[in-house]
Design a protein that fits this description.
The structure is a homotetramer of 395-residue chains.
Chain A lengths: L10 E4 H4 L17 H10 L4 E5 H4 L6 H18 L5 E3 L18 H21 L3 E5 L4 E2 L7 H22 L4 E5 L8 E2 L4 H8 L8 E3 L3 H6 L4 H10 L7 E2 L18 H13 L12 E3 L9 H27 L1 H9 L15 H7 L9 H6 L4 H12 L4
Parallel strand pairs in A: 1-2, 1-10, 2-3, 3-4, 4-6, 6-8, 9-10
Antiparallel strand pairs in A: 5-7
């Protein structure tokens, strides 16, 4: 039997995922619009814990204040009825043509100012709804020609915007944390902050760097051929994994937003293993939302929408079981030991030894038996194969 | 006539580039070994300014102290005779089987200690030869299976090694700066610090972060589908472009190390434009070595070695001329203005305005004419086409 | 001065290119609709020779017969006024949701029948307008999961459809030739007949293979990391280059449809050289339309639409000049000779020699001086560099 | 328990796979040479059925006739002792520098003649050893610059060589079939016949096309972002899957030659399903050797060599079990039916109907309810998820 999702699993979904009408660059919508209130109810029935959204997902762009309030009220009622929470919110700075050259980094200063204001307004709502994380996906911040964008000036403006918004949140006492979502390209030819690494580097320059982390998406990193588990590891290592977008992708191509596990399945296994068992002594390495940012296949009707929502969660839970069994297997423990995986946690230089001690240790260099060390097998084949067999449920 | 390279152009070459014997994963060497002394002389004749090397390029692995001294002495004589300088040096932590699981991040602690010692020894030589930059390319720091490498522990060890070596350099008063060279994969399935962004992020965590920058290579970034000009721009923006490796690559495939310009030629044009004219008021954005890290085609004999060395420099100089003409063209100036490229350097919020001022400015949001702003053309097509025509020497 | 396009250059454009309203997967349209009649006039003014279209570009999907006739009449008048011809037409089997699982290879048989009928109807119009080439881009023929599509059955249906339509054209005496346009992915996760090679292979199985060729698109091949010049060469070699789609792409990512030359500029140079000078004795290797299938940048207004149309043609003409100069340069001739490029046209076995003669020739094997042959330089570096310098207009 | 490989499973290995000494472009060998005789014995013990090789794997390049005979004799004895067969052989036309510009398509005619002779000699041995398939991997047939290779002439020479060798085999009555192995790049910048499709297209032009098929390799197709299951399907559809190379690859990068299943695991599941259950009524779609062309990880010693050999076979067998369960699951049968997967095997036009019948069927077009057809869900999500769950052994 496949496992059943429940709120304690902390699964969340974007309104724009199940609500995607399946309009793509070459085709019209294949599904009718979905009422956010219905999405909340259906997700709750399926065992989800949270729901997330861009401002325009809930409140159509251009709504007046009265309409806006009505949309919010209906939504809050649905949350109350279902118990779903809103762990994250974000801004749409990409659909309307005004953002065609970006929001925070548009060459047009008036657009930049408008974009910042649009975020501010939605930050108030995020605080009202208790969203503790606010995501920034700068999908339009980029260029198609290097002639048209002064990237260093763009990064100045990006920083200016984030710094200003951080100050706003701090002054208001909202307690919201920011999470930047990298993506290498699409819809722009090249997007600024293309990978988790570049976003982490950017964050290190911010005035309130402590309240800004990343929101990596499986497919976005894989579009750049990055090893997603490595990217997540570096984000965790820098204390910056504030949120995560789970989905699937099949290589360096357009952004597919497949169901989690329907892309690189082996990487999905290792990702769940890292998130759930990757901490010291096997504790979860990440305790935030397990958020799905995917698209139900365009070939399917509304049945496929809910089937796919469920599929994301079930696959995650199956992989969690597989990862637990992997960690618990004595043969795996033995193989990890043979592969010296834990030895890497041991500092290369002993406490107090310093480079001077190392220089004085002839066994480290002058008398080091290079050939003997070179001939030792790391036994990585056996360990990798145990992982594959566990992923397949074959042990 | 094509331009003639001269030392003032600050072109430098790795000994391993012209000296590559053309052994590849499927084939044996096609060229005889090249004496480093000959390389120094030939490069000087061609107009180069500097030469760089890994320890083992000059001093074969396993040489005893006497042999080592002889190799160094001969090399110094060649430098003295030709006037070539050694602006950069680096360590080979990848050829010998002892490094098969990495140097600083090998699961085997004794290998890590040996690797650090190997670097230390070569840092002394770098100081002796006046190399102001020391490059770290961790080509073996990585993995093929996520089961086999605890990436967070690996980053701890990577940092430990760099911190220790920085302390060593500081204590000795060498004045050397470090430059980390990112690469996404090959020879490892996935390499740690795969892109410029991830290296910059890593550097931000170092004890002596101020003395550590990056050494981006054209092909390495392009293997991950990164826009190299964007990557370099972020490195410059963070004050971290300490060195650069120029070459060519044709997309996401094995590391080709083509001649500069023989890969993505349009990107090469924009790169040279950024390096030479990218600063405020058109000043060079980078004043370090123009270093070529490429491989002469395996099909060619020694003639192709020197022909290719020259080709790298000539193409750079042609592109420099093209970029200067691009910047000087009044039509380009007009197109840049129409595209509001410089407007991006203007802060989005006026001095002293802050978010409070922005909130109070109804013209920024409440009264902002979104449709009017959306309908303005950025004129990027014209600007891009002017760049292409200048690259082609057609204006 | 940049060259001026004229009808004799045989440049053609799809109505959907200049008419693209710039709706993308993450954003709404940024430009108003363009009347096909206006496009015809503007393209003619810019020096184009032909215009092409999908049925639905001219006649909105669902038009009744009366409306259809009006659209066609107006369009014919514009053609008559401008002298523009319609060298190619094609069918839209991808925008309407009915085609969400494909046209000819939809799992739903009734959709397949409908798709074939839609093509038939438009083939009549193509004949009426004198279009000699009819393109099949099966953008929706594919899958996201290997479970959902029996690829061999799909190829059976694909062949059935093409065979049937070929028979229809033959019976009617239209004289139309078919050209299949390959693409690896987008909008489907994987598209059938992903590359020029797979389309050529498919064609070899058709009942009327002689009337079916390919319509390769620069960006589509480059999305799969194919060398476009190699792909075109194989198509020419098999006598199957019936049409070509020129544009630009920057690596393995979403389908960018950039202006020709704004992607891989060096490959564009070699492509134009092949098309214009690639035949025996330097004659054009291809005499069909130079057709642009690109998208004006979404950031630009209507000004960018016409500027980009012009840019495609100008860049082609500049590259044609560069290629002519390259071929005419005595140094290039010498380098080609040194590189033995023409020697490859000489059969490996002499006329009448056969394998028996070869077996009897001891100089070919038993007495062959392998080391001497191995040590000969091919001089490819010099030849490549001459090409780069010519592309840059530097010689 | 994981399944145990046995000869009836028809697993075969290249001598060069287990025998790879782990020399890579950046590093020296990490393992000692392996005696082919030992490999035969070890593979037999592990349950393999066949062994394959390049001429130079068994008989070092340059061996004289006496040495050659001794190597062959020892090898035959090992085969006799173990019962292993030699189902396939091939030629090394890539390691020696003489082949630096290719074998059959070198610009140097004398090299082309030598290459053909080298193959002839080895074809005699293949016949002697009973190898029914002879593979051609033209790894050096290609170029780095489009200036240096006349691709159409190269294809002429490629065809000339294959035609000649086919005639040789026919005249001698060897009964050998040829299988061309495509690869997009590495070691050449671009290799001729880069994908299964281009090889199939080339084969259609051969004089003895019926005796020539393809030998697709998982990683080679995936380096070009091809869906391997689609590629294999087209090869099967054209009756040309003569042999297959199983391994693993993680995206568009250097040729990794990972253990089967250690790359794209979900694609491996669908591949095994196709090979084992893909024929009409669930029969195997392919009955040839299950051949592994992989490299044991360079980090591992000889232990990893045999562990990895075993791992390839075990993973294949686990996936075979998973695929059988997938096909047998009533829910899967129902989902396949709902997704109309089998309906695609039904011709679009009824027997005898022809295009005329279709034209006359108003229900196919004039009266077709497009919107109703568009609104039907294909149910691909459910089917895909069932496949994922079966792959994970979760049902």
């Amino acid at each position: 039997m496949t496992p059943t999702p429940k709120p304690a699993d902390h699964f969340s979904f974007g309104l724009w995922t199940v609500g995607w009408q399946a309009r793509d660059p070459f085709g019209d919508a294949t599904r009718p619009p979905l009422d956010p209130v219905e999405s909340v109810h259906r997700l709750a029935e399926l065992g989800a814990w949270g729901v997330t959204f861009h401002d325009d997902d809930l409140i159509p762009f251009g709504s007046d204040d009265g309409e806006r309030d009505k949309h919010i009220l209906r939504f809050k009622e649905a949350l109350a009825e279902t118990g779903l929470v809103v762990p994250m919110m974000t801004t749409n700075l990409f659909t309307h043509p005004v953002f065609k050259d970006g929001g925070f980094t548009s060459n047009d200063r008036s657009v930049r100012r408008y974009a910042i204001r649009k975020v501010m307004r939605n930050l108030d709502l995020a605080a009202d709804l208790g969203a503790s994380t606010y995501v920034f996906w700068g999908g339009r911040e980029g260029s198609e020609s290097d002639a048209a964008k002064d990237v260093r000036a763009a990064l100045d403006r990006y920083r200016e915007a984030i710094d200003l918004l951080a100050e706003y949140v701090l002054d208001r006492g909202y307690g919201t944390r920011f999470a930047i979502e990298p993506k290498p390209n699409e819809p722009r030819g090249d997007i600024l902050l293309p990978t988790v690494g570049s976003a982490l580097a950017f964050i290190s320059t911010l005035e309130h760097a402590d309240m800004v982390g990343v929101n990596p998406e499986v497919g976005h990193e894989q579009m750049a051929n990055m090893n997603f588990v490595h990217s997540i590891s570096q984000a965790l290592w820098q204390g910056k994994l504030f949120h995560i977008d789970l989905n699937g992708q099949r290589g360096a191509k357009f952004d597919q937003d497949l169901i989690f596990g329907h892309g690189d399945l082996l990487s999905a296994f290792f990702l769940v293993d890292l998130l759930e068992n990757g901490g010291p002594s096997g504790a979860p390495a990440y305790d935030g939302p397990r958020h799905f940012d995917y698209k139900p296949l365009r070939t399917d009707g509304v049945d496929g929408v809910w089937e796919s929502a469920r599929a994301n969660m079930v696959t995650y839970l199956v992989l969690k079981e597989r990862a637990a069994a992997f960690r618990a297997d004595p043969e795996v423990q033995q193989a990890l030991s043979a592969a010296r995986v834990a030895e890497l946690a041991q500092p290369s230089v002993a406490p107090g030894e310093g480079y001077k001690g190392l220089l004085g240790d002839r066994s480290s260099y002058e008398d080091f038996d290079v050939e003997a060390a070179a001939s030792r097998s790391y036994g990585f084949v056996r360990l990798s194969q145990l992982a594959v067999e566990h992923a397949l449920g074959a042990r």
